[in-house]
Structures are given as structure tokens and as C-alpha cells.
Amino acid sequence: MVSSQLAGNKIVPLGRSFYERNTQVVAFELIGKVLVFEQNGNLLSGKIVETEAYFGANDPASHAYRGVTLRNRVMFGRAGISYVYFTYGNHHCLNMVTEAEGIPGAVLIRALEPISGVQIMQKRRGKIIYGQLTNGPGKLTQAFGITREHSGMDLTKEPFFVTQNERQDQPIPIRVSTRIGISRAKQMPLRFYLQTSSFVSVH
DNA sequence: GAGAAGATCTCCT
DNA sequence: GGAGATCTTCTCA
């Protein structure tokens, strides 16, 4: 397995219990973790530096606000599953399902800092500028080759998962703000980002 | 079935 | 900073 090692360290996917918690807590704690995607023998990975929390009935900005639909049903299912949707005719967005089964919730991954597979990401993005590879939800899915086909995948095991950052040995400066790009429930402070990262989509 | 909105990105001014 | 691209999904009649 390519993904059993990363930068010389043994890596283990976060377990289901990490995701089966309050969406806001999961969104906060995902900052600094590492997203890993093994694809065609290539290992792509990146440090998560920006997330947003989306709830259900109490969150007008969430896809789950009006109840279950064909698209959002994953959000009502088991935690630790990927929810990928297509938007604006061009872009995919990657979410991670949270909360207990039956309670809708998901964390949108808005930005990453590339760790491995940078050449593949640059090829897919058609960009040479390193800093613009994955600094937005649509950009990172393009760089990682994530589409709706990857919705419903189990993030607690290979080849697509999140792991602890082994190189993180001290507290990181996480900031909170309102969410971006939405027209409803704008005032809710549910966006989390790594203050020191240049890959955050909007400072 | 039609129309509108959209958790975005990129290019142009 | 603003607007267009582009097409899926949802709502409403």
C-alpha cells in the first residue's frame, strides 16, 4: 500500500468516532489534519487549512435544510462518509459527513496545503503557481481529481481518508469567521482556518 | 416541464 | 472588483 507510509511515517486513518460528533467540533479539529487520496498508484495528500460546518434543519445555508433529497441523502447517513456535489456548472465540493446517523451534518473542505503529489496537482490544474493549487473548494477537488463518483466513500479507510499530522507537535493558531459564498445564514461563525497558512482561500 | 438559484473560478477592466 | 461561464438540482405550477 502506497498510503501506509507518508514522509517516512506510518499513517492511520481517523476512526468513525472522530466524525460522529458535533459538526462544528469536527470542522475545528480537522484543521491541521492531512487528507490522503491514493489514486492509480499515486499518493496525493495535503494539510487541511480551511473548513466550514453545515448543519441541517437549523441551518438555511445547508443542503440538508429542507430535508432529504437525492443529492444530499449522504448527509443524513453514517458519519465518516464523503459527500461530493457539483455546483456552478464547473466545480465539485468535498464534504465529510458528521454527527450520529440520521442527524444531517457535514464539513466542507475549503482549502489544503499540498504535501505530496504536487506535480499531478499542477498538471490537473494547469497552473505552475504552487500557492494557487488548492486554495479553494473547487480548486482542491480539481487538483485531487475528486468528482461526484467519489461521493459516498468511507473516509475511515484507504484509499481516501484523513489522518493525524505526525509533524504537528505544537498547538496551531486556528481562527473562526463567518462562512463564504452563501446567501443565507451568513452571520453564523462556522468557518475555521489556519491563520498562518497562505493557502487559505480568503483572509 | 420550466425557471431560478447556486457552499466557485477565472478572466477582464 | 465585477461579471460571465456552465450545468446540476430543486421548487413550483
Question: In a few lines, what is going on in this structure?
Answer:
The chain is an alpha+beta fold.
> Quick one: biggest sheet?
9 strands, antiparallel
Average pLDDT works out at 93
Strand residue percentage: 25-35%
Count of DSSP H/I helices:
4
Q: Uncertain segments of ≥5 residues (pLDDT<50)?
A: none
What distance separates the N and C termini?
37 Å
Please give the number of β-strands: 11
Give the H and E element order. EEHHEEEEEHHEEEE
Query: Which class of secondary structure composition applies to the elements?
Result: alpha+beta
Which term fits the overall shape?
globular
Q: Calculate Rg over CA atoms.
A: 16 Å
Helicity level: 10-25%
Describe the model:
The protein is of the alpha+beta class and 203 residues long. Helix content is 14%, strand content 30%. It has four helices and eleven strands; from the N terminus they run ββααβββββααββββ. The longest helix has 8 residues, at 23-30. The radius of gyration is 16 Å and the shape is globular. It binds a DNA duplex (13 and 13 nucleotides) through strand 5, strand 6 and helix 4.
Helices and strands, with pairings:
Blueprint: E1 5-6, E2 9-10, H1 16-19, H2 23-30, E3 34-39, E4 42-54, E5 82-87, E6 91-97, E7 106-116, H3 118-125, H4 137-144, E8 156-157, E9 160-163, E10 174-177, E11 191-194
Helix pairs in contact: 3-4
The protein binds a DNA duplex (13 and 13 nucleotides) through residues 52, 54, 61-63, 66, 69-71, 85-91, 93, 95, 108, 110, 136-139, 142, 179-183.
